[in-house]
Here is the input.
Amino acid sequence: MSLILPNLPRVPLIQTPTPLVPISGLAAAIGLDELMVKREDLSGFAMGGNKPRQLEVIMADALATGADTLIATAAAQSNFCQATAAAAAHLGLDCVLLLRGRPDAIVQGNLLLDHIFGAALEFLDTRDPYDRAIPVRLSEIADSVQARGGQPYIIHLPGRTGALAAAAATGQASELHEQFIAGDGPPDVLYLAAGSGLTAAGLILGFKHLNIPTRVVGVSVQQAELFLKPLIVDRANAAAALLGIDTRIDEQDFDIVDDFIGAGYGIPSPASLDAISTAGRHGALLVDPSYSGKALAGLIAHRRLGRLTNHTRVTFVHTGGTATLFAHADVVARHLAAKRAGGA
Ligand SMILES: Cc1ncc(COP(=O)(O)O)c(C=O)c1O
Here is the structure.
């Protein structure tokens, strides 16, 4: 199936290919003739959405080093950390998560899953994923694992693991390539949420390598376009080197939009809450307020603003995030109640 990934070892975690399906009710609600949804949310491993696909390659790398303890870091409601904890449980490894947030964070959503998967949790009171204290603390944790005779493996996306994760995401491009051929051909545009940008990096690289003309639009959920675009180029090209392919991408190959972040990363925006209700009511899709909901909000707004016409053939990558819906249950419920009261 995959035209790119065979060059890298993988530990199988997910069910592939993830489905690519038309969702006509949602298309009509948005004002599109056609909307295809790539169901990465149905990747089939521990509610992890797009993350276990990245972890398949990262886990192979970890096991090759003889690791017995995974150390990962991200926000307290991180899907990535949750999926890492699940991968550790699946492979019989220990897992330590360094979570950005406060230890009194409510144990719901992904944080609840972290507990269920048996990860050891540590908190760092910062909102900045590039906070210098993070790599320092990660090495201290690794030192303490080594001191007790363990073999740590640090999963920190700015490092080698970022290139591995982007390389892993090219597998999704290969699947889409085959699904487009089996269907009506490549769409005009593809929308997805961009956090670290690694999923986008892998897709953009894969599309270029496979000559898929579809324009990728990454909807940033955290960083400004000026910051994220070069990062995606770097990660994609590091992934290309790892994969041993000659294709390289540049900033002209894709779009990043950064006007749907709202008040900040992980904070539900009114538009993402609207997207949650539209996706649920018209597509039976569960998008979340931090990632897939903000990406869908971007797509809906672009249609409303005329950047897309009803004839534009659109694919939306549903990257998952289902568990975080429950961490924001009160905000989502209030929004739905207000809509009902307003007759919307
Ligand atoms: C649900 C969900 N969607 C999208 C993303 C963004 O993926 P990436 O970090 O590869 O840009 C994430 C990352 O955490 C996520 O959890």
Q: What stands out?
A: The first strand starts at residue 20 and ends at 22. Residues 5-49+161-341 form a domain with the Rossmann fold fold (CATH 3.40.50.1100).
